[in-house]
Structures are given as structure tokens and as C-alpha cells.
Amino acid sequence: MKHIYITATACLGLALSACNSGGPTYITSSAVPAPHIQVSATGTSAQTPDIATVNAGAVSEGKTAREAMIANATKMTAVFDELEAAGIEAKNITTSQLSLQPRYNYDNRRTGRTQPRIDGYEARNTVTVKSDDIETVGVMIDALVKAGVNNINQVSFSVKDTKTAKADAREKAIKEARAKAQAMAEAAGVKLGKLTSISESRGGFISRPYELRAQASAELSVSTPISAGEQTLSVTVNLVYEILE
């Protein structure tokens, strides 16, 4: 008579990844995430800039390096005098570039020579100037050109205190995110629960620099018009709400 034995192994527990008599048994537990609604929204706030930054300088040439540097120093001394006369404090004037380099002539390559010829030298001195008097920036630029500046790279504007704009943008973003979450819950036929998570990321101010090029021989009969416009600060928030059944 043949006997048949049936061995039953019960798999009990929260979860078993292996269930056999010969190998190890692993029991893992993972909480099922509660139903939730996650939304994001961006709020913006515009402010009028109250700081102007001008990046300008002088380019000088000479047959020798010394001649180029002396010519440039003469121009920049006049530039610093004009800035002082305009009421710009020394702490708001920063030398951002000072360079001296040969001016090469490559025409001799036509004769078969590989090395270019040095025809002279070029000296550059550029300063970055900050001013909190937006109304006089145009007049200041004209004075700089008159003093010898022949290279105005950029005029940019910024906001000194961004706290007010940031708070306003944050409030708008949260209101919009909350309204979006409520609308999603109503459309899905569920109720919005409590807020479980909130985070923020700031986009910063969106501004456009004002570019200006000046020629050394420019004769300005009127003041250079400058408009600061407005700058917009953006704040993005992420909200997570529970869903009530």
C-alpha cells in the first residue's frame, strides 16, 4: 500500500518574499501611502529697481606697453574724478578688469612668415559702478564718456530689498495652489483634507540689462535716456493635501 504525505507550509505575516522549508524567509512591511493631492503654483510680484550698476571703462593704445598704460591711466584718473564729483562713494566703485596685451599684425603671413608682427599695445581698464540714484544714471554716463570712457558694456538694475516682493509672491502662489487643489478634489468627487507638506523654490528676479556702446569721439548734446522699468520676482510653492473619503 502506497502512502502519500502532504506537507503544508503556512505563509503568515505581513508579507513573505520567500516561503519554503529549505531557504530563509523574509518578512517586509511597507505602509501604503495615504491618498493625497499634490499641487504646485507660481506667484509673481513686480518692483521698481532702486539700484543701477554700470560697467564701463577705457581702451587705450600705444606703440609701447608703457605708452598704452600711461594713456589709459590718464583717462581712468579723469573717470574716477567724474565719479567722485557725481557723489559715488569709493566703496561702490570696483575695478573689474585691467589688462595689457600686444596688438598683432598678421599681414606678414602673406610673405610666408608664420609669426605675426607686434604693431603696438592695448590697455584696458574697466570699472563696475553702483548707484542708488536711478534718475542721474544717464547724466553720469554722459560725464564718464566726456572723461574718456569709450567702452560702456552694460547698465543693469536691481532691487535692494526683496523681502516685500518675495512675501507678496509667496502669498499669491499659496492661494493659487490651494484653489487648484480644491478644484481637483471637487472634480474627483472627494474632499480635501489637511495640508501635510509645503515647500518653496524661488525663481528670483527677471530683469533685462540695458546695453550701451559709446564711441570715444561721441559728442552728446542731450542726456542719455535711461529707463529702469520693473523687475518681477517669482516664487513657486508645492503643497500636498490629504484626501478624505
Written overview of the protein:
By secondary structure, this protein is an alpha+beta fold. The longest helix is centred in the last third of the chain and has 26 residues, at 163-188. The chain has helices at residues 65-85, 137-147, 163-188; strands spanning 36-47, 51-62, 93-105, 117-131, 151-158, 191-206, 231-244. Mean pLDDT is 80; it is low at 1-21 and 211-220. It has two domains: 34-49 and 160-245, 2-Layer Sandwich (Translation Initiation Factor IF3), CATH 3.30.110; 51-158, Alpha-Beta Plaits, CATH 3.30.70. It is elongated. It is built from three helices and seven strands, in the order ββαββαβαββ. It starts with 35 loop residues before the first strand and ends with a strand. 24% of the residues lie in helices and 37% in strands. The strands form two sheets. A four-stranded antiparallel beta sheet has the order 3-4-2-5. α1 (65-85) runs antiparallel to α2.
Q: How confident is the prediction overall: mean pLDDT?
A: 80
Provide the β-strand percentage band: 35-45%
Structural class: alpha+beta
Q: How many helical elements?
A: 3
CATH architectural arrangement of the largest domain: 2-Layer Sandwich
How far do the termini sit from each other? 61 Å
SSE string, helices as H and strands as E: EEHEEHEHEE
Q: How many individual domains? A: 2
Number of strands: 7
At the third CATH level, what is the topology name of the largest domain?
Alpha-Beta Plaits
